[in-house]
Structure formats: C-alpha cells, structure tokens
Amino acid sequence: MIEVKNLTKCYGKITAVDDISFTVGTGEILGFLGPNGAGKSTTMNIITGYISSTSGTVTVDGTEILKEPKATKKKIGYLPEIPPLYVDMTVRKYLEFMFELKQVKLPRKEHINEVMRLSGLERHGRRIIKNLSKGFRQRVGLAQALLGNPPVIILDEPTVGLDPKQIIEIRKLIKGLGKKHTVILSSHVLSEISATCDRVIIIADGKIVADAKTEELYSVLSDRQRLIVTAEGKSSLIMTELNKIPEVARVNRDTAAGRGVFKYSIEFIAGADIRRSVFNAMMRINCPILEMVSGDGSLEELYLKLTENAKGEEN
Ligand code: ADP
Ligand code: MG
Q: Does the pLDDT at position 309 exceed 80?
C-alpha cells in the first residue's frame, strides 16, 4: 500500500531523514518508534505531502506523492503532531468545514456522524473545540483524518499529552482502524507501539535501526546478553580483567552495593556462557564474587541502548 524508497531530507546541514526505505502492506498497523528528533515527523510530513523530500520517493497505492500530489493526498488521512484545529468552531462545524475542504464525495451528514462515532465524539458535536480537553481535541484531529474514508491513516504521536485513560481509549480506536485501513503511527514510547502495532520500525538519527514484527522485536534487538556480577575489590582492576574475556563486548560499573563492592553489567555475545570465565578471572585477581545473575534486559532497555547515540545529541 505504501512504498517509501531512499527517502532523504536535509535542512541545511542537518540530515533529518537519511536514506530510509520501507513498505507497508494493506491493513497493517506500523509503528514508527524513535526518540525525539529522530526524524519521525519529518518522514510523516513527506509521506503525506506536507513537505517535499530532498531525494527519494513515496508511492501510495500506485501513485507517487510528488508526481500526483492531489490524487495521492486523497488516499491519506493525517493527524499531524499539532492538529490544525479551528478552535472557535464547534466539533461538527469544523468537521463540516474539513469535509468541504477535502471535497469528500460521500453523503455529508451520515459520513460526519460515522467519523464522529468512530472517534468517540457522538455526543460532543456542539461543543466548541477550545473548551475541549486535550484528549477530545485529539479525537477531533482523528475524526478529521478519517473524513473521506482514506485507505491510509497516518498519526503522529497521537497519544502524547493524554492521560492513561485517554491513551487506552485512543489505542482501542487505532486498533479498530487497522481492520479497514493501513495505519502508520509514531511514538517515542516503546510500550505505546508494542501495544498497538503489528510491526515496528525503529528510527534513530534519521536512520532505520530495526524493522521487525512486534513479537519478534526482542530477538531482533537482543544480539547480546548480559550478566550482572556483584564483586568486591578494586573496580579498575575488575573491569580490566573482565574485559579480557574474549566473549565480553562491554563492561559497565553500575551501582555501589556496599563498601568496595560494585555491581558490574557485562554485555557479551549472545549464546556464549561466560560464567566460568568470570569466576576464573575474579579468582586470579582475588576479588570475591558475591552475586551473579543473568540480566536479559527488558525490551525497553534494548530500545534505549539502540537509540542512545541519537539521544545524546539532543540539547
Ligand atoms: P521527531 O518527529 O522524530 O521528533 P523530527 O522529524 O521532528 O523528529 O526532526 C528531525 C530532525 O530534523 C531534528 O533534528 C529537528 O531538529 C530537525 N528539523 C525538523 N524540522 C526542521 C525544520 N523545519 N528546520 C530545521 N530543522 C528541522
Ligand atoms: Mg515528531
């Protein structure tokens, strides 16, 4: 349904999106996950034709956004990061206004009722947008995206700033959309994406760093394992000795666990078993091991690790 090919966007010297390619199948709910500044909004703005790319192409259901912008835009409903709402209008007036602007050809009253129902706005048509809570404004933005029944729905951080109850409701709405639409949704929160999406693309620093089915994400991300060792003795010596073990990729000293006692987080190549080597190493330098546990690391930790370089560049 959507094909993104070698997309690049530069703002002066900044490369916000760096040669990314992916496809999204019909009816798929794709999560676009990455820290702030990763390039999510830029990518979405290009797919929806709001801004142009520096290079690369976006094709939606056979038409290319740059070549046939009007026809392509008609296939997409977009909820931008900051939805352009006319806050002095009532919910229904605004949707009627957008209905005309988008030149929707469906029966007006029925269709607006339908998108209001889908967005959980049935009883709120007469309310003035500026008096609505953030959660309800987000629903109005969503309803606007659904106008015209576009086959593709793109939602940029749809749950940001909502309270937990509103988040659960919006998630339910989005899941429901997946039955009839192809959906791309972005978030900087992993749990958000894993709760709603079939597939996840992780983007950091303008590049795709992972692309996997949600349930396979963990194994894709975890090509390293961790062992947490609590040991007594001089840390620098312990670190040096642990780093000598061939399968060890990285050692971090975590928290102090007592006088002269520290926890060490040892990353090593998946599939290896370094416990005996660790024991022998500590024996050699006469530093007793007080505890040794395997730390698989949560999916959240893996995600943070994967994106931490990009994070470091933020203000
Ligand atoms: P995300 O949505 O993942 O938080 P964005 O796509 O908004 O990330 O931004 C990606 C990068 O591009 C950031 O470094 C941001 O500062 C930069 N950027 C975004 N929009 C502009 C712009 N209009 N002018 C200059 N730089 C921009
Ligand atoms: Mg953004």
A: no
